[in-house]
Amino acid sequence: MNAAEGNLHKRQGCYHCGLDIPNHSQFFTVIAGEPRRMCCPGCQAVAQVIADGGLENYYKHRTVEATSPESLSASEQLQAEFELYDHSSVQKHFVADLPDGTRQATLVIEGITCAACVWLLEHHISSLDGVIVASVNLTNHRARVQWDDETIKLSEIFFAMHSIGYQGHPYHPDKEEQLLEQETKRAMRRLGIAGVFTMQIMMLAVALYTGAGASLEADYENFIRWASLVLATPVVFYASRPFFQAALRDLRTRHLTMDVPVSIAIGGAYIASIWATVTSSGEVYYDSVSMFTFFLLIGRFLEMKARHRTGKAGNALLNLLPASAILLCDEGEKIVAANELQQGDRILVKPGHTIPADGLIVNGTSSIDESALTGEYLPLTKNIGDAVVGGTINVENPIQLEVTQVGESSQLSSIVRLLERAHDEKPKVARLADKVSGYFVAAVLIVAATVGTVWWQISPDHAFWVTLSVLVVTCPCALSLATPTALTAATGTLRQHGLLITRGHVLESLAKATHIVFDKTGTLTEGNLSLQNTYRLSDLSEVECLDIAASLEAHSEHPIARAFHRASRQDRVIPAEQLTNHVGMGLEGYIAGKRFFIGKPSFASQFCGKPLDFSDAPDSHGQWLLLASETEPLAWFGLNDPARKQAARMVQQLQKMGLEVQMLTGDSSAAVQHIARQLKIDKVISGVSPEQKLQHIQQLQESGAQLIMVGDGINDIPVLAGAQTSIAMGSATDLAKTNADAVLISGELMRLPQGLRLARRTRANIRQNLSWSLLYNLIALPLAAAGMIAPWMAAIGMSASSLVVVGNALRLTKLDRPDRLE
Amino acid sequence: MSIIYLLIPIAIILAGIGIWGFFWSVNNGQLDDLESPAHSILYDDDEHLIPDEAKQRKPTEPPTEKR
């Protein structure tokens, strides 16, 4: 048994997803000869498919638990949804016909948590009849599938993924994404060139070092120098091009950054070495040039990787908007691609489907889940004539819409526009290293020029070499390594602990932060309703009441109903008969001939002798539902979106660290105040739109606050983009993640105070590094200027000072002891 | 010593071939996923490939774990 497996199964959670198992539930699946306990029918079904397919090894190899699958009760509906992908009008956007008659598509897969998921998906999909190739990429969660359309339909592939607990979406590469891919490949090629040729040059350099002046004959030495020149040329001209380009851009904008001294060092040492090679005099620095380039490229490559990790921008909106829509025309229903909809079209939206465009309801009544846009966690009831927004989800009944806005002018697009504006107005963080390096570069250039002129007067023969040794000795290795090494070390540590940093300035901004603003739903709270308490009003036991409620709610996909699905102890809930859905009020149905009601108290108690109201509920916060029969009220159910377990402790720690904690939410219900009291957050702004959220944080920032914003939903995206530092939850929408500066992958809130402490230590570490390298340069510079430093001394000093910097930065790879204890 | 006049150019050519191979693999998407191949080698999903006579008999009782 390996360590990861041991850790995973030690806890008494669901064998599949690791969530707590409700006390009364009895779901088992036999895996590898042993019955394993599951938390819900969804996990049970998924585990059964995995076990039946002989893929139990997945459980042995995984290092992270699976995500809990959505309930599988709506599988017929899902089947219908997946079948949309079989239509050629939908397929033409993402499916390629290959010359041999097969088809190929790239899909984005949701729910991949570790490498074992990749293994499971590849084996399960490849085993389907008609699938020729299925390969899954762990880094960007994409699957490339090639299949024979005669034997298997694409919808069946989607369904097969769904049956083992993963969601597939078609992938359309957009321009930005293609550019990112090219950037990655270019960076890899640069790294390869620098790496391979640096090794070759080092080999030759050893010969030069050991044989210099003594045993090595001048002819051989010259030959080795020429060989090094050949090897170093591609490193300088190809691998270090980004530094030169950035330096040129900086010079044009009259803004000195680290790229300028780096370019001067690389370019200067390279040109001087060529001079030395051609004239067979002085010293060559090919080894320093290429090694310096290689190390810096590694740092940049890691930084870029971290930045791209969350970069699934191209698909973020697509996941939200459905690829197809049901158009109502004279001939009846027709399935069309969503982007072909025109203003004025009439469309049908079935329950559970995402609304494809902004529109007005012309027929039907339903409730709409707008949580993605507004953060409101309960669906809103919409009637004929009400406007609905594309990207929101129709929960209960089929509705007919007249399309009012499509594409650019739709409300979702306007959020994206708001986001772009917010990006532009984001306050820029002046980076300490950049400021220091600006002065440093200017100083070095002036000193080098002065030294050169003075030596030219004294002894023209030596002038060039002394000037060069000034440039080499002050070669900003240590200085330019000071910040990246500390940042890389700290970023790596945080990533291991579940906080992924995607922009360079984050650690510095975290260290300086004075305010931290949280979104409520999905950030401070779990983001879904759960049954908190039950109060009996009759002789029936709590469990019996719960069974009745679950039967009534069995078919609904309303968030309230899902809370009952999760809480139910039964294997298979027997749905009530003659179910009637009174939108916005509740449900009624018959169980064993008796009529029951569940919903708003005034609705459920209509036939009871004594009508009840919300004021009769056991307390005033949370959401109360009444279960009643025709004769008497039976029970109150208290539903709530509970605060995350660590939230209170996190808020307390942040406050102790001197930060002002605020809550900013689109939700306007009583739950806001309840959560605020529970977590002891004083400053709460509720019921605000995305625009108002953005305004609020901009005002704070203008008044000088250094702000961190933590959020998750679509409605948080503009504010995440506009905040100086933004952190998205791991469960957030892709669009939110791409626009955040950091992602809290694990969703463990305690990582925030830990991250903040590490950021503060990082800042101190960078200061130490900068001071050290400046000190070293201050001592070495006068000596070099006086002509007292031989090139080999300069090389040793340079390496030593770099090593000190790297060693100091390595201290950041560990969290503080108090951090670890928590 | 004059052999280095031959060996160094050969070394440069070999390095060039290595770079060419590396470029090919980058452009061909071989390095797109840097994570999962490292794990997939460890999965014991090749049991059906092992000839029956070469399979190790599993002990009926698992041996007690030693530390």
Describe, in short, the structure shown.
The complex is a heterodimer of chains A (822) and B (67). Chain A is an alpha+beta fold and 822 residues long. Chain A is built from 31 helices and 29 strands.
Strand content of chain B: under 5%
Order of helices and strands of chain B: HH
> Average pLDDT value of chain A?
78
* Cα end-to-end separation of chain A: 28 Å
How many distinct folded domains of chain A?
6
Helical segment count of chain A: 31
User: What structural category characterises the helix and strand content of chain B?
Assistant: mainly alpha
Helix content of chain B: 40-55%
> DSSP helix count of chain B?
2
Question: How would you describe what is shown here?
Answer:
- The complex is a heterodimer of chains A (822) and B (67).
- With 822 residues, chain A is an alpha+beta fold.
- Chain A is built from 31 helices and 29 strands.
- In chain A, the strands form six sheets. Chain A has a seven-stranded mixed β-sheet, with helices on both faces. Chain A has a six-stranded antiparallel β-sheet with strand order 9-8-10-16-11-14, with no helix packed on it. In chain A, strands 19-24-23-22-21-20 form a six-stranded antiparallel β-sheet.
- In chain A, strand 20 (577-582) and strand 21 (586-591) form a beta hairpin.
- Chain B has a domain at 8-43.
- Chain B has helices at residues 4-27, 36-40.
- With 67 residues, chain B is mainly α.
- Classes of the chains: A alpha+beta (822), B mainly alpha (67).
